[in-house]
C-alpha cells in the first residue's frame, strides 16, 4: 500500500474527535496542544521528546517508547503496565511544589507502587526513602538496625 504524502500546518484549529489510522506521522511538532483523553495504540514512539507535559487521561498501549525523553511532566496517578524498563533512568523525581496545580499543602498524595515487578539489579542512589516499604518492611528501620 502506497501512502499519499500530505503536509499539514494547523494553527488555532479544533480537531477534537479526529481519528488517524494507518498513518505515517514521523517528525511531528506539537506546541501548546491539548491532547487530554488521547488514546494511542500500537504506535512507534521511539526517540520522542516530551517536555512540559501533563499526561493525565492519556492512554498508550502497545507502543515502542525506547529512547524517549520525558522532562517536566505531571504523570500523577498514571498506570504503567507490562513495560520493559531495562536501562531506564528516573532522575529528579519530586512531589508537586507549591506553584503546581496538583499541590497538596498536607502532602496527602497516593503512594507510588510497584507490584509484581522484577527489580533485579535496580539501584536507588541519593534518594529520600522516607516511608519506603518493600514487601511491607520499612526500609529506613531496616537500615537503622546496622
UniProtKB/TrEMBL annotation:
Domain of life: Bacteria
Gene3D superfamilies found in the cross-reference section: E3 ubiquitin-protein ligase SopA
Protein name: Pentapeptide repeat-containing protein
Lineage of the organism: Bacteria, Bacillati, Bacillota, Bacilli, Bacillales
Amino acid at each position: 500500500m502506497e501512502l499519499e504524502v500530505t503536509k499539514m500546518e494547523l494553527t488555532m484549529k479544533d480537531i477534537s474527535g479526529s481519528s488517524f489510522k494507518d498513518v505515517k506521522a514521523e517528525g511531528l511538532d506539537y506546541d501548546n496542544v491539548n491532547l487530554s483523553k488521547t488514546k494511542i495504540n500500537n504506535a512507534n514512539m521511539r526517540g520522542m521528546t516530551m517536555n512540559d507535559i501533563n499526561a493525565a487521561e492519556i492512554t498508550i498501549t502497545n507502543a515502542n517508547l525506547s529512547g524517549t525523553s520525558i522532562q517536566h511532566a505531571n504523570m500523577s496517578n498514571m498506570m504503567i503496565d507490562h513495560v520493559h524498563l531495562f536501562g531506564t533512568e528516573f532522575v529528579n523525581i519530586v512531589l508537586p511544589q507549591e506553584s503546581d496545580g496538583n499541590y497538596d499543602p498536607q502532602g496527602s498524595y497516593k503512594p507510588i507502587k510497584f507490584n509484581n515487578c522484577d527489580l533485579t539489579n535496580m539501584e536507588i542512589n541519593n534518594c529520600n526513602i522516607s516511608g519506603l516499604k518493600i514487601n511491607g518492611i520499612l526500609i529506613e528501620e531496616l537500615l537503622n538496625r546496622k
